[in-house]
Fold this protein.
Amino acid sequence: MGLRIQNNIAALNAHRHLLDTDTALGKSLERLSSGYRVNRASDDAAGLAVSEGLRADIKSYQVATRNTSEAGSLLQVAEGALDQIGNMLTRLKELATQAASDNTSSSNRTKLNSEATQLKNEIDRIADSTDYGGTNLIDGSFNGASAVSSTDTADIAGISDIYDFDVTSASSGSYSLTYTAASDLLTVTKGGVSQSITLTKGGTVNFSTFNISFKLTSAATLDTVGAAFTGIDTSSGAGILDIKAGSGSTFQVGAGNSTNDQITFSIGDANTAALGLGSSSYVTNIDLTTSANAQLAIDIVDDAIDDVALIRGQVGAVQNRLSYASANLATTIENVTAADSIIRDADMASEMTTFTKNQILLQAGTSMLAQANAAPQVLLSLLS
């Protein structure tokens, strides 16, 4: 073989491999000490980009979980206040029942009415003061998702004495209403979907398919055109109900900016001026000073109790929805974290195997470099 002094090719080759081994060993040390497979973009550029997106989503999901928990706490505050209002309404019915009986004297009715006034004042105080983080909850200001449009002023043909129209959870759009006088059947249609309900006087009509409901007085006339009602435009027994989106109370429960990442709900008004039969027959109008007024008060309170029960039912339904949303978020965080871990985290067992291999190669490479450096010394024997 050729013996050269100027260029030791064997030593250069050993040195190059030794540098590669040293770089690989350093990378293994970095991964073992950090626990990450990807520590910089050069380790896996595409993987890093995906991982950064996943990590941002995980942080958002974690905040969304807190939002969901706080929304549940908000609803719990409202539900607790509504519970007490329900208790006071029960007491009001007791007072009204006692005042409606002729065995109660006029002076005693005055005393009963005095207590009723105090209860009404307390209901209003609780309704107006119940808040969460400075946001009032049950005074009617916790807006729903929808509102009746004021662009049309007419009535539902064939129906009069409608009041307390509720569309707070309905979707915006145009609804067709058709009333059949012969069977007292009202049909609501939107987008090819219909729901029909037989109307009853003094009852609540709840079109659950569309989240639309309203009440009829006990004196409702179901076969004649009634007085004008905002939001309804009618013609020959058919009407159009226009609903526009309201401000709503929206809670972010996802990582994106879409309706699927949000939950919007409302809480009804629990003031005495909003609970009762409607028109001039609300809890605030209760007067127990006469037997006739006390008898009317019984009907008003019964309806008010139903109103509060309806609000509490809606609150409970949203609480259940939030609990499922929270459980889904917990699962999502777990699964997205697992996906990020596959990309970003180091397999410690595999990395330790690689580290051991590189460590042995480093020792062997160092030894071989020493041997390669020593090989040209045999030329000295030729020069002696």
Summary: Helices lie at 9-34, 45-99, 106-129, 291-344, 348-374, 379-383. The first strand starts at residue 131 and ends at 132. Confidence is low (pLDDT under 50) at residues 145-161, 223-237.
